[in-house]
Amino acid sequence: MFIGHYGVALAAKKVAPKTSLGALFLATSFIDLLWPLFLLAGLEQVRIAPGDTKFTPLEFVSYPYSHSLLMVALWGIALAVPYKFITRYSRGAFMLWALTASHWFLDLLAHRPDMPLMPFGATKVGFGLWNSVPATLIVETAIFAGGVWVYLSVTRAQNKIGSIGFWALLAFFMVSYISAAFGPPPPNVEMIGYFAPFAWIFVLWGHWVDRNRSLSSPSPLAGEETP
How far is CA 203 from the centre of its chain? Predict the structure, then answer.
């Protein structure tokens, strides 16, 4: 899953309104940002195998350190603890942990049974949404659209960056998604490892746009803490 993760992060702004959208994007994509590093280091494995599922040409052979349920929970703590220490914003810290954990459960829906529970266990699970291209597009686009609607309901643009920049970000998301879904498979595994970290652009773009938007109205969920 790709834009579905970011849809959940956009919706999380309602729960943790003082947390930057960039931080929310970082949490929801954190294990996918770690994955290429482990891939290049030889700690995890992926294979280019068109037809492994109908939606993606990638066969996720082994990714116990980035994508096992236990490690995902620990990676969430690794994000949430320093955020809480720096910002003193408990709700935001919890949301960073929850978004990191949510990545595993959304991938559980999309992947075939290749999602590990433990870094050294043999049990792998997955519901296989990727075995249907139409179903994947419908479900993931719906999650993303719902997140956009929630985010727009709780924020408003302060200037053109907050307005045009936000809609440009959404367009970039969709172009990236369609390209990944219907474009040619990557030429080799190394290319995946080198280009996957470019997902950081969504984190930086989200932070930039969010700085130029404000809350639509005071939210009871904001609490008394400072971000």
Answer: 10
The Cβ-side half-sphere exposure at 189, using a 13 Å CA radius, reads 18
List the chain domain ranges.
3-215
Q: List the chain pLDDT tens, one digit each, 227 residues.
A: 899 999 999 999 999 999 999 999 999 999 999 999 999 999 999 999 998 999 999 999 999 999 999 999 999 999 999 999 999 999 999 999 999 999 999 999 999 999 999 998 889 999 999 999 999 999 999 999 999 999 999 999 999 999 999 999 999 999 999 988 888 888 888 888 888 878 899 999 999 999 999 998 655 554 444 34
Report d(CA 167, CA 162) in Å as an integer: 9
